[in-house]
Each structure stands twice: as structure tokens, then as C-alpha cells.
Automatic annotation (TrEMBL):
<protein>
    <submittedName>
        <fullName>Antibiotic biosynthesis monooxygenase</fullName>
    </submittedName>
</protein>
<dbReference type="Pfam" id="PF03992">
    <property type="entry name" value="ABM"/>
</dbReference>
<dbReference type="GO" id="GO:0004497">
    <property type="term" value="F:monooxygenase activity"/>
</dbReference>
<keyword id="KW-0503">Monooxygenase</keyword>
<dbReference type="InterPro" id="IPR007138">
    <property type="entry name" value="ABM_dom"/>
</dbReference>
<feature type="domain" description="ABM">
    <location>
        <begin position="2"/>
        <end position="92"/>
    </location>
</feature>
<keyword id="KW-0560">Oxidoreductase</keyword>
<dbReference type="InterPro" id="IPR011008">
    <property type="entry name" value="Dimeric_a/b-barrel"/>
</dbReference>
């Protein structure tokens, strides 16, 4: 498994539309067998900052499986207006340092 983090800066005036776009885009993520889960979080202390966390089966599953599938075009169409607002988009390997209550 690999985790993709996408950090956005979205002005308050666009926040509602941004979240609505991901309400639409999530259907493509849910439909992909390569996507294991996701969450969109909004910063409590700086509400114009968002982080999308997506768990993929692998980097290849994301880049080759999802991005070359029929699920990617509708996903991109939904979030395209917000691509210029991306500050970071990277894959991270999960380490052994983790805990959940």
C-alpha cells in the first residue's frame, strides 16, 4: 500500500464548490479497485488549507491502473478547476510508526 497526499490552498469563496467537486470525484475513486480508501480534511486552524489522503494498492496501481482507466476522466473533470491550487501531490510509504485507538 502507498498513500498519496494532495495539499490544496482554497480560498473561502471557493471552499463549498471545492468540496462539492470532491463529492462528485469520490465516485471515481470508489469505483477503482486500486483505491483502498480516502479522506478529504480541512484545516481547523487555517480553513483555506485542505489535504486529500488517498490509499492506493501501489504507486503503479494509481499511476497506471487508475490514471489509465475509464474512472480517471470523470475524476479529473470534477476537480480540474482546483489543479492550480495544489501545493503538493506525492506518494508516501507507510512506516511502522503508527497507532490508532
Amino acid at each position: 500500500m502507498i498513500v498519496e497526499y494532495i495539499r490544496y490552498t482554497i480560498p473561502e469563496t471557493r471552499a463549498q464548490d471545492f468540496e462539492a467537486a470532491y463529492q462528485t470525484a469520490q465516485e471515481s475513486l470508489r469505483a477503482s479497485p486500486h483505491c483502498l480508501g480516502f479522506e478529504l480534511s480541512r484545516c481547523h486552524d487555517a480553513p483555506d488549507h485542505y489535504i486529500l489522503r488517498i490509499q492506493w494498492d501501489s504507486a503503479e496501481g494509481h499511476m497506471q491502473g487508475f490514471r489509465k482507466s475509464a474512472h480517471f476522466p470523470p475524476f479529473l473533470a470534477a476537480i480540474r478547476p482546483y489543479v492550480p491550487d495544489i501545493e503538493e501531490m506525492r506518494h508516501y510509504d507507510v512506516t511502522a510508526v503508527q497507532w490508532t485507538r
